[in-house]
């Protein structure tokens, strides 16, 4: 393998830049040429491809977002779109591709590998929802952003003796809500993976009030319902007044945490090593504190295993 390329795709995540830097620097260190593809698969189809040098990735390890930009690309879901991408890769002499992104981006990379272009995937999404890795790049930073917000909201909730609903990201995955809720001492956490009863939430709030509790924080993952919908339900069914805070895309930005920078550097470098071995269809991840490789096919097989222990703990600690 003489020349590889790197792209970022799907929802951006803090630490993507650190991963791009690692791919570029490791590739050059190993004597490879490396190109950067701008705007994810869309840019691949359109040939937005530029050579990357050591200096191209200077001063980005601490920056949020992605200097390569990101995109959602419906055209790449079609065989015709992917054929165009393969043509561009061939025209640029690119023999292998590192894809930094989430589950959808991994599926695209799998399809590309089947077309004969070895792809290696680096998990980066604030949702932490990729099977095979315990942590994705961006999750730790987003988690700290949410906790900072919860702490601030708790201050005003205490002053005014109010209940707050905080809506966090996570369309299909509850990790961000669950970890942030546990670390932020939320009274109630609602995530897509766990069923709940409105009556239970109301009882918990009422029993807290009965014990003299003057404020409370409910964290809801957007995949369950919106914060405003939940507020209406609590008002209608329990006559409970709440204030709602929707954290939104603030969770996707910001300087990556030290942990995200470290795992991004480790994952990016390992991805290059896999490509040098001429292997594709591989994902990089973290298991038991070790950087591991596993096949993309494994990522898509079955459903992610559900660990209910943390949810149970959050309930036990917020009685
Ligand atoms: P994420 O990677 O963060 O999960 P998306 O699900 O939006 O984000 O996926 C990013 C891009 O990956 C999509 O816009 C599309 O171009 C590509 N993609 C997603 N699913 C597939 C698929 N099944 N086949 C081919 N490409 C896909
Ligand atoms: O990156 C994943 C995610 O943050 C989800 O939690 C969220 O629903 C989605 O992206 C929103 O992304 P966008 O606004 O870019 O469509």
What does this entry look like structurally?
The protein is of the alpha/beta class and 319 residues long. The protein is built from eleven helices and eleven strands. Helix 7 (198-210) links the parallel strand 7 (188-190) and strand 8 (216-221). Residues 9-11, 41, 72-73, 76-77, 101-105, 107-108, 111, 125 line the site of adenosine-5'-diphosphate (ADP).
Mean pLDDT: 96
Instruction: Note poorly predicted spans.
Output: none
Q: Which outline best applies?
A: elongated
The rounded Rg comes to: 22 Å
Ligand inventory: adenosine-5'-diphosphate, 6-O-phosphono-beta-D-fructofuranose
Order of helices and strands: EHEHEHEHEHEHEHEHEHEEHH
Helical residue percent band: 40-55%
Largest sheet: 7 strands, mixed
The overall strand count is: 11
Summarize the structure.
The protein is an alpha/beta fold. The chain is built from eleven helices and eleven strands. Strand 1 (3-8), helix 1 and strand 2 (33-37) form a beta-alpha-beta unit.
Task: Give the tags.
alpha/beta, 7-stranded mixed sheet, 319 residues, binds 6-O-phosphono-beta-D-fructofuranose, 4-stranded parallel sheet, binds adenosine-5'-diphosphate
Secondary structure blueprint with pairings:
Layout: E1 3-8, H1 16-29, E2 33-37, H2 40-46, E3 49-51, H3 79-91, E4 96-101, H4 103-114, E5 119-123, H5 139-160, E6 163-168, H6 175-183, E7 188-190, H7 198-210, E8 216-221, H8 227-238, E9 243-246, H9 258-276, E10 282-287, E11 290-295, H10 296-300, H11 309-317
Parallel strand pairs: 1-2, 1-4, 4-5, 5-10, 6-8, 6-9, 7-8
Antiparallel strand pairs: 2-3, 10-11
